[in-house]
Amino acid sequence: MLAANACDRYLSIIEGSQDPESEANKAQGIAAEDIKPVACVHGLVYSFDTKGYEHNIPGHSIWVQSRCYNRDFIEKYDIHCPTGKNSRQGEDYPFIRKLDYAIAHAQDWQVLQVPYEQGGDCQCTAY
To answer: What is the secondary structure of 63-118 as a DSSP string?
Structure first.
C-alpha cells in the first residue's frame, strides 16, 4: 500500500533532480548539461516480521516494489510484464529483471533513491 504522501515525495525528488539550481545537484557538483532524465525512483518499504515487529528496510523491499517508473524509459526499452497463461504469479520478476538490465546499460538515464534518515520519522513510501 502506498503511503499517503508517496506520490508527492516521488514528484518532489524527480523535479528537484531535473533542476540545475536544486541544492542536491549543487551539492553533488552536477552541471546543467550533465543532468539526466530519471528512469526510476526507489522508495522505501515499511514491513513487519512474522511476530509483528516493525522494521524499516532501506534500499530494498520484501514482496513489494516501491518504485516510481518513467513511462518513456519503460516504453523505450520495451519493458513489460508477461501476459498469457501462468502470468499472474511472479509477474514482477521478469519486469524488474528487464528494468534493472536496461538501467545498467542506459548511460543517459539516472536512478534516484528516496532519502532515508535513520532515527527520524518513517520516510517510507509503501507499507
So the answer is: S---EEE-HHHHHHTT-----STT-SSSTHHHHHHHHHHHHHH-TT-EEEE----T
3-class secondary-structure state, position 15: helix
Q: How many residues does the chain have?
A: 127
User: In 3-state terms, what secondary structure has residue 24?
Assistant: helix
Nearest-angstrom CA–CA distance, 73 and 90: 22
The domain segmentation of the chain, as residue ranges, is: 6-113
- DSSP secondary structure code for residue 32 in this structure: G
Per-residue pLDDT of 4-63, as tens digits, reads 888 888 888 888 787 877 776 776 677 777 788 888 888 777 665 555 555 555 554 455
Rounded to 5 degrees, what are φ and ψ at 104?
Answer: -65, -25
